[in-house]
Specification:
206 residues; alpha+beta; Arc Repressor Mutant, subunit A; three-stranded antiparallel sheet
Length: 206
């Protein structure tokens, strides 16, 4: 009688999930995978508590796995997460708080409020545009910042509040969509160009 042949097949599946591109972390993961393939010999389901891989990377490992009756690893899953990266994702971006400036917005033939009432700008971008134009024409202020805008908004009173990122409309006007401003000589400053001046001329009472 021919001797019955027996065969046994084992499969090892290791799944990694990480949100970090850190080279040291990747090397640690490879080392762990190699160690697990040799060390997980228990026939019981293994669930280990989160363990820190590296104090430098602050990566947390959660490991689950099952082994077969012969001690081979059927499946191992490692989930890696970075507390620091999660905090960065959930953190609210902080913007510099604009500060009021000493500006005369009342004197002259055309005070700022009267000019804004004439132009009736719609939205923060056009409000910033009209203010920058008025400051340039009536106060000879060639470069404006979010502090100028904040001061003018405060002057206008109820219903006028700068956005959380008070410099955003200035950056927007510098972009290709509008092209009404260019970068000033100092950080955070912007200069109104002829395209922006032409746009103001089309608004309101001209």
């Amino acid at each position: 009688m021919a001797k019955e042949e027996k065969a046994k097949v084992k499969m090892t599946v290791i799944h990694f999930e990480t949100e970090s591109d850190n080279a040291t972390l990747q090397e640690n993961v490879r080392a762990i995978a190699h160690t697990l393939s040799r060390a997980l010999t228990s026939s019981q389901r293994i669930i280990s508590a989160p363990a820190q891989l590296s104090s430098n990377n602050e990566q947390i490992m959660e490991q689950t796995g099952e082994v077969d009756d012969e001690g081979g690893v059927d499946e191992v899953e490692l989930t890696l997460s970075s507390p620091s990266s999660n905090k960065k994702k959930n953190a609210v971006r902080q913007y510099r708080t604009p500060q009021p400036l000493e500006l005369d917005l009342i004197s002259g033939d055309l005070p700022l409020k009267s000019f804004l009432d004439q132009k009736q700008p719609d939205g923060d971008v056009k409000r910033y545009l009209v203010i920058a134009h008025w400051l340039k024409q009536h106060r000879n202020i060639q470069e404006v910042t979010m502090d100028h805008m904040y001061t003018c908004y405060r002057h206008m009173g109820t219903g006028w509040q700068v956005p959380a990122d008070a410099a955003a409309p200035l950056r927007t006007m510098k972009g290709k969509q509008y092209g009404w401003m260019k970068t000033g000589s100092t950080k955070g400053s912007y200069t109104l160009n002829h395209l922006g001046e032409n746009e103001v001329g089309k608004m309101g009472n001209g």
